[in-house]
Amino acid sequence: MKLHVLRPLVTVIGIVSIILVARALVVPDDFGVHERGYMYGWHRKGNEEDWKKFKIKYRGAEYCGNCHEKKYQTIQRSPHAIITCENCHGPAIDHPSEDRPKLDINKERAHCLRCHTYFNYPTSGRRLIRGIDPEGHNSGIECVMCHNPHSPGLGRAK
Amino acid sequence: MITRRDFLRYVVIGTAGAAAPLGLANPAGVLAGKDLTGPRWVFLLDTFKCVGCGLCVKACKTENEIPYEANVSRTWVERYVIMKDGTVLADTPKAARDGFTRNVIDLGQGKTQAIVTEDIAKAFFVPKLCNQCENPPCVQVCPVGATYQTKDGVVLVDRKWCIGCGYCIMACPYGVRFFHPVSHTAEKCNFCYHRISAGLKPACELACPFGARRIGDINDPDDEVTRIIKDGRVSVLRAEYGTNPRNYYIGLSEEVR
Questions:
Q1: Residues of chain A below pLDDT 50
Q2: Is the minimum CB–CB distance between B63 and chain A shorter than 8 Å?
Q3: Which DSSP string corresponds to A3-19?
Q4: Which of A71, B7, B30, B88 stands 20 to 30 A from A49 (CA)?
């Protein structure tokens, strides 16, 4: 072959081989087409495991009930039984442990008002919850001064 | 002399041959069918039951390490107020992280609009999260294979692989994607993949006191969620986009976008 054909040809082959070698080195073995096909399943398989290893933080009310049994039993008999403990106390993560011996206690009015600000909204379950007017109902005082959050039905005025 | 016909033949053979090592010409991979073994996760959302307390948003942000003060979230709750004269008002202040505690619509930029309760025709709350579409457009546009769908239908983002180009954020018709303020990669709801893979409920479902949001396995005919989806009156968001979204809503109104 003539030199002016050979030279560019060798250059192109060289560049392509460098790219292919680099790709083989950089791209991990588990990168490729997986279950959902080329269009949706082209990925690094190991990333699925990475996500599965993400830290679990919320443990559920039954877990709390193992130790705080009285609290658990009390709330189960109240209309607040549907609210899981961690909504008001924050996620368990590894509580009880050295760096998490206790959990937070949210006593803010705003927290109770998430559900108890009265909205008369047709077609929404919100209107079915006994609500109050935040400005009118003892404003400025924490709700839990008067209401027991674990048993709001009984003994209203604590 | 090479004929035109031969030339074309060599080009075709040459291209196919060059593609083979790239794995692009693997017909089994390209045409991979759907495998019905194992779960296919879907969500059922009830707009009658949702009261807009926002505890799902709070739990989601904490569980998934989305900076609490940043105005981004994997899930959010929208309030729709439809007045008797047909006006549609909607808001989701701070993604409803702190719920809805005032009967006032947040128009953004510090502006608000009071609601006259007597003039309301219907008002309700709509929880939103990733639809884990059967045909996810966000995955199609990813140039590097950093976002993908698993066998059980969940669309994940590979934070190590994502280059942060933002195409997927633009491609999602539901606006569920955003940039993670810390990792600076694309971020989205993944049905709490770490929890559901371990047999737990997603954090938002655990936090919801009213059963307004529930995960289900559409491949399991005995799953209650599956039964409600199969025989109940449910609808999906923006069906016309052809993405085949997998979040089913009870009580969706045409005003909901």
A1: 157
A2: yes
A3: HHHHHHHHHHHHHHHHH
A4: B30
Is A86 in Cβ contact with B125 (below 8 Å)? no
- Is A125 among the domain residues? yes
| pLDDT of residue B33 exceeding 60 | no
Could you say which of A53, A86, A113 has the minimum Cβ distance to residue B101? A113
- What are B223-248's pLDDT values in tens digits? 999 999 998 899 999 999 999 999 99
- Residue bearing tokens 């390490």: B65
Q: How many whole angstroms separate alpha carbon B114 and alpha carbon B98?
A: 19
A40, part of any domain: no
Query: What distance in Å separates the CA atoms of residue B156 and residue B158, rounded to the nearest whole number?
Result: 7
Predicted ipTM of the assembly:
0.87
Q: How many domains does chain A have?
A: 1
- Domain limits at A80? 61-145
A53 within domain boundaries:
no
SS3 of B132, please?
A: coil
Put simply, whether A34 touches B (Cβ < 8 Å) is yes
Rounded to a whole number of angstroms, the distance from the CA of B3 to the nearest CA of chain A is: 19
In a domain, A140, yes or no: yes
pLDDT digits (tens, 9 = 90+) for B90-130: 999 999 999 999 999 999 888 999 999 999 999 999 999 99
**Distance of alpha carbon A86 from alpha carbon A74, whole angstroms:** 16
Q: Which residues of A touch B64 (CB under 8 A)?
A: 54
State how far residue A124 is from chain B, nearest Cα, in angstroms. Answer: 5
